[in-house]
Amino acid sequence: MIKLLSDFTSEDEKRISEISRDFSLHKETAGILYSRGVRTDEELSAFLKPGWKRFKDPLLLKGMPEAVERVKQAVEGEETVVVYGDYDVDGISATALLTKALTELGLDVVPFVPERADGYGLSKANIDKIFDEHFPELIITVDCGISGGKEVEYIKELGADVIVTDHHELPDELPDCTIVNCKQKSGYGFESLCGAGVAYKLAYALIGTKANKYIDYATIATIADSMPLTDENRDIVYEGVKYIKSGKASPAINALIEVAAMKEINSTSLAFMVAPRINAAGRMGDASLALELLLTDDEARAKTLASKLNEFNVSRQTECDALYKAARQKVVETAFDKKIIVLSGDEWNGGLVGIIAARLVEEFSRPVILFAGKGDSLHGSARSIEAVNIYECVSACKRFLKDYGGHSQAAGITVERENYEPFKKAIEEYVEKTYDSEVFKPVKIADALVTEKFTLSLAKELERLEPCGVGNRRPMFLLNATDVTVAPLKADSPHVLIKTEYLELTYFSGGKKSDLLSSGADKSILFEPGVSTFNGREFLKGYVRDVEFTVKPTEKVVLEAFRISLLTLENDEKTPFKAEDEVVSEAKEAAKDCYGTIFALYNPLNIDKYPFLSVMDKTIYASEEKNLKNNLVVAPSKNVLTGFKTVYYLDRPLGFPYAFSGTENIVASESYA
Predict the structure, then answer these.
(1) How far is it, in rounded angstroms, from Cα 487 to Cα 285?
(2) Which residues contact 548 (CB under 8 A, 6 or more apart)?
(3) Which of 46, 227, 371, 559 has its CA at a distance of 20 to 30 angstroms from the CA of residue 512?
(4) What is the pLDDT of residue 639?
């Protein structure tokens, strides 16, 4: 579903006009900022002019003064300090950042990042390993530790002090040590820093503006950990992207940009090109390699290590594809009708399940938890849709868990094998009771409706909203059309150009929908505007991000449906037919559930004949519901692929209806369309 946000009251419109006038913005840009809560002059100035001057005082974070004082004692006492991190981008970046900053103070610093197989956070085994080799007087955690109360006590028993720096949700019982966590109540005023963001704040409190040369690490981590790019995170990423563009970034980041062959540097390209390569090391079982890369100041060594991470990333992509297919098949077979998808696989790579969970969330628009492990314990990664707080869901079932941690959109979980099924049942029941079915309907946001020619001037101005990401989406626009011109981008290209009265759009992989796009169905086209440069000239560009088709029984749609009905005369798949009343009765019952069923008609004029279809999304030729939500397809065409369990043909074509590939049950009415 595409949701249009710009439904403003007269008072809203008045303020938007004032913003447009006072800040010299197009009304569309002013409306987007207003709808995102950027409304006062102070908020607008902060948003439109981000940067260093808006960074907050790190000493306002609770626990920061005590942490700074303890580090100063370590410097005076020439102590050995361990920086204990995590194996993901945020944890590795935070470890490297704080290690470098502490080294500038003259400290003997030992960076430590566990491997994914060791599990998340502090562990007794890793603590023993550290003390056997280094016997530190102080351990500082980054991006972990807030749930490690027992482990903190163990460290103290061994004779070392602990400073926990973290950004994850606060447990009921906090560790008994100095804690710097942006989630704690304080005068700081911002709770959404990432782990490396908190580490950067500690570094700044210790070495002042010298810490700014590590802003690239804080930037990559903020983006990779899906932190909202609002408030101070916007300032951090704005300055970080600018710093990276200037060529002043660390040898590690420059080497990763080179090996990824990045043509453009912005928050999006860093998220999709640099972050996965850092993450690949931990996911493939060698997080220390990524840590070594981020710590090195040698450009040649950085290039060598970046190449190795690139190889890891290629292997990771291959394994991910196989794991995704296996997990998706399990969804279709066993979890298609659940509001939360919980699956496990003994042979699955625990380093990859988080990536696959995120892909399944995007496809099925439901929270997903995937577990891996062969022993007595299973380790899981949870990802969620915006409307479902997965941390709260997991917390509600913590009685079955060995360990867990995370935030609203992601969590890490450890469960004993014997408790896996009880946990699965409990969290399925919790989500079923807590969340209404409507929140699982995939929603894509359009910031404004296009009703006149889209201009290059507006597209250029919208670039001022960068950096974009979580919490500050790239602006999207909606245009409505029925008749559009569709043509391949070039000969044999899977991509198409769509010409509308407002602008020309590129639709990547849109060739497979050419028939739909050329049909008489009404089209709601969601697109992202942009600017391209060629031979020194700037051009308006637009990229299609989604298309919704609304089927009404217009003359053109009726004729197109009749054409498909004629084609079914060539179909040699002899589908058995049942009495119309029997089919309709079964279909009504199936419609009471949310997922797994397609309802099909060959005559669009019959849509109003069945009132239970009125609440469903409707399209022509093929189902657009990737998340397996029930929907109506008018005139389904040949070789339509689905993962749906059942198809109900409520009327009969001239020949035999086409089978939907992958469906288990086909129920067809004997009544002709």
Answers:
(1) 46
(2) 1, 2, 523, 524, 526, 617, 624
(3) 559
(4) 57
Given phi > 0 = left and psi -120 to 50 = alpha, else beta, which region is 535?
left
Summarize pLDDT for 589-634 with one digit per residue, the tens: 998 888 889 899 999 999 989 999 988 888 888 777 777 888 888 9
**Beta-ladder partners of 498:** 486, 505
Q: What is the CATH number of the domain that holds 237?
A: 3.90.1640.30
Query: Would residue 321 count as lying in a domain?
Result: no
CA angle 576, 605, 665 (to 5 degrees): 25
* Residues forming a β-bridge with 370: 343, 381
d(CA 343, CA 424): 8
Residue 317 in domain: no
Same domain flag for 610 and 633: yes
Please give the Cα distance from 562 to 518 (Å, whole number): 16
Contact present, 278 and 220 (Cβ < 8 Å): yes
Domain range for 564 is 555-669
The string of pLDDT tens digits covering residues 506-527 is: 999 988 888 888 888 889 999 9
Domain count across the chain: 4
Q: pLDDT band at residue 660, thresholds of 50, 70 and 90?
A: low
Domain annotation covers residue 199:
yes
Distance CA 193, CA 447 (A): 26
